[in-house]
C-alpha cells in the first residue's frame, strides 16, 4: 500500500516536471516571438477560412496571451501553485490540442504546427504523438494534483504568480517592440544566406515516380518507364508523384526580383563583397511608418558610403507607391516571397545588414542603428562588426532577472517554512509533554503524621487552625492529617474534608473481637476518617509488625473503605550496604503486591528512609528521586505503567519547609509524609506551600 503510494507519487511528479518544462519552453518560445505566433495563427485562420473575419490586432493579442498562458501554467505546475485549478486547465488545454493535432496529422493542412515556435520543428505525426503523451500525463496530474509537493508556501505564491506574469508580459512586449531575443530562424545573426541555400553533397534527393496512361484499341492502361509499351499504344496522359522526400535546405525560397519581374538579383545581393542594407517589409500596407526618418537617414548614409540598399517586399505597386508618398523613400524596391520576408525578420519594417552575404545585424524599426551622414564607415562602428556572445548574455539576463530571483525566493521560503516546521514540532512536543504530564498528574499530597503527640485539646486546636487556614487559602495539593485514634472522632466533626483528609496512624490486623487495646479498621472508618498509615518503620521496629501482619491490616483497611498510606524504607545499614532497592521491593511484595489492580489504586506509598526519620538528616533530592523512580518502576512491572503513573509516592524523613521545594520538584516525588514539622500549623503550611 505504502509502496504503491510512493510509486504513484514518483510518477505524478515525473509527469509534473515533463509537462511543466514542456509548457514553459513552448510558452516562452511563443511569447518571445509574438509576430511568429501571429503568422502561424493566421495560417490556421486561413485554413479554416476565417482570416478575413479576425483582425491582426486580435490575432496578435491572442498570440501574446497564448504564449503567456502556456508559460504561466508551466511555471505554476512546476511550483505546484493552485494545483487543482492548474491541472484542470492543463487537462482542458491538452483535451483541445490533441484532437486538433490529430486533424493536422491526418489532413496536413499546415506542415509545421508551431507548437515550439521555430525552436524545434516536429512533423505533424510527431506533434500528435507528443500531445498524446502530454495528455496522458495531464490526466494523471488531474487525478492526483495533491501528490505534488509545493516548492513555495501558499502565502508567498502570489509573488511567483505575479512575477511570472510580469516577466512573460515584459518579455513579449520587448520582443514585439524590438526583436525576439533568441532567433531560431535560418536568417539569424551570423547566418550566411548563400550557405543556408546549399544542398550538401550526397544529400538525399527527393524521389518521384511518373505514371503514363496510354490507349490501344479503345483500352486504357497505366505504364511506368520500366514497362513503357511500343508505338502501337497512343499516349493519353501522365502524372508524377513524389514518392520520397529529399533534403530540404534551411533556406529554400529566398529570391529577389525587380518589381517588374524582369530580373533576379538574388546572386548579385548575396555575392556582394562588403556591406549592404536590406529593408524588409512583407507588406507596406501594414508596416509602421513611425520611424521613416531614421530609415531615410540610413539610406542617405548608405549612399554616402557606397553601400547598396535594397527594400524587399511582397507588396503591390500601389502599396509601394503609397509608402514612397508618405515616407519620401528614395531607395529601390524589390520583390521577395511574403513568407520568406516574415521569416527573415520579425518586424515590419525591419532592417538587415549583410556583409559578404552574411547577416551581421538585425533591427526592428523601433530600434534602428543611429547612422546618418555624419557617421563613420561601418567598419569603424559597432554596427559593422558581428556581435559577440549575444546568446550567452541573453541567457544570463534571463537567469539574472527571472530564474535567480525565483530561486532566491524559493530558498528563503523553504528555509522559513523549515524553521516554522521545527518551531511547530517543538511546540507540539511541548504540548505533548504537557499532556503527558497532565495525564500523569497523579495526586500531590502533603500528609502529617502526628505520631504520639498532642493531647485532645491541642490536637483539636491544631486541626482547627489548619482547617481554617486551608479553607481560606486553597492548597495546591491534597492535605491529610493522621492523628492518634482519640482525636479522630472529634476532629472529624469540624474538619472540612474537601480540603483536609483525616487519617489514623494504625489499625488492627484483626477484624474485631477480644484484642484488648486494639482499634479496628471499621472503628477508624466509623469516626469519619478516610485514611490510615500502615507499615511505618516505627511500628515495624517497635511493635514487630511483620509483612504478613501488615498484609492483613492493608486488606482490612481497604475492605472498610479506608485509603492506605503504606510506608516503606531502608535502615542506615541497609542503605550503606546498597540494599535500599531490595528492601523496598521486598516490603511492597510482602504486603501490597498481593492486591488486585483496583485495590492497589487505593494505596499511597510513602518512602521513608529510617535513617532520615526524626534525625534531621534528609535524603538528598537526587537520592530520593532515584529510589522513587525505582519504586515506580517496580509498580509498573507489577501493575503496568498506567497504574504506576497514577500512584502517589510521598517522601518522609526530616522533610521541612526549607527542603520541601527541592524534593517536590523531582518528577517522581509527589509530596511528603511529615512527622515533626506537621505539629505546628505554620511549619506544616510551609511545606504545603512548597506546591505553590
Ligand atoms: O516518620 C515520619 C513521618 O511518618 C517522618 O518524621 P520526621 O518528619 O519527623 O522526620
UniProtKB/TrEMBL annotation:
GO biological process: gluconeogenesis; glyceraldehyde-3-phosphate biosynthetic process; glycerol catabolic process; glycolytic process; methylamine metabolic process
Pfam families reported in the protein's UniProt record: MauE (PF07291), TIM (PF00121)
Cellular localisation: Cytoplasm; Membrane
Gene3D superfamilies (UniProt xref): Aldolase class I (3.20.20.70)
Highest taxon in the source lineage: Bacteria
InterPro entries per the UniProt record, alphabetical: Aldolase_TIM, Methylamine_util_MauE, TIM_sf, TrioseP_Isoase_bac/euk, Triosephosphate_isomerase, Triosephosphate_isomerase_AS
Binding site for substrate: 449-451, 614, 654, 675-676
EC number: 5.3.1.1
GO cellular component, one term: membrane
Catalytic activity as recorded in UniProt: D-glyceraldehyde 3-phosphate = dihydroxyacetone phosphate
Top-level class of the enzyme under EC nomenclature: isomerase
Main location: cytoplasm
Topology of this chain in the membrane: Multi-pass membrane protein
Molecular-function GO terms, alphabetical: triose-phosphate isomerase activity
The Methylamine utilisation protein MauE domain, residue ranges: 10-142
Annotated metabolic or biological route of this protein: Carbohydrate degradation; glycolysis; D-glyceraldehyde 3-phosphate from glycerone phosphate: step 1/1; Carbohydrate biosynthesis; gluconeogenesis
UniProt-annotated catalytic positions: 536 (electrophile), 608 (proton acceptor)
Transmembrane annotation, as ranges: 7-29, 57-81, 88-106, 128-147, 159-179
Keywords: Cytoplasm, Gluconeogenesis, Glycolysis, Isomerase, Membrane, Transmembrane, Transmembrane helix
UniProt function note: Involved in the gluconeogenesis. Catalyzes stereospecifically the conversion of dihydroxyacetone phosphate (DHAP) to D-glyceraldehyde-3-phosphate (G3P).
PANTHER family: TRIOSEPHOSPHATE ISOMERASE
Complex formation: Homodimer.
Official protein name in the record: Triosephosphate isomerase
Organism placement in taxonomy: Bacteria, Pseudomonadati, Bacteroidota, Bacteroidia, Bacteroidales
